[in-house]
Design brief:
- The chain has about 120 residues and is mainly alpha-helical.
- Helices cover about 70% and strands about 5% of the residues.
- The protein has a two-stranded antiparallel ribbon.
């Protein structure tokens, strides 16, 4: 069932979303300062490709206060808007019963888009 959900996700916009994150990531990785942020958008691109069956977990204290500082910078430079976009689409999809599983995937992406540092996808 997860496989079918992922295929439907890809056809109905997941591939476009993943490509957008990939292009943004390449643009950020070109600059030295943007490398950490580019790596986080690669994480979002990976989740955008195959969200069903993937889980987002905290790494624990591996990043320490650096993860907190990087998450604050991320939120201020655009992470809040990415997260709000996924939240909006999640709410929109949850209007219908058929859209609920896809809305839940957008909610998962919204939480990762808000604070990606210190999290991993399994």
């Amino acid at each position: 069932m997860k496989f079918l959900g992922n295929i439907i996700w890809l056809v109905l916009g997941g591939i476009v979303t993943a490509i957008e994150y990939l292009v943004a990531s390449i643009g950020m990785i070109i600059t030295i300062i943007g490398i950490p942020f580019g790596l986080q958008t690669l994480k979002l691109a990976r989740l955008a490709l195959w969200p069903f069956g993937s889980t987002v977990t905290d790494k624990g204290n591996s990043g320490g206060c650096l993860s907190v500082v990087m998450n604050i910078i991320w939120i201020l430079i655009g992470g809040i808007w990415i997260s709000l976009t996924h939240l909006f689409f999640g709410l929109l999809l949850c209007i219908t019963i058929i859209g609920i599983p896809f809305g839940i995937q957008h909610f998962k992406m919204a939480s990762l888009a808000l604070t990606p540092f210190g999290k991993e996808i399994r």
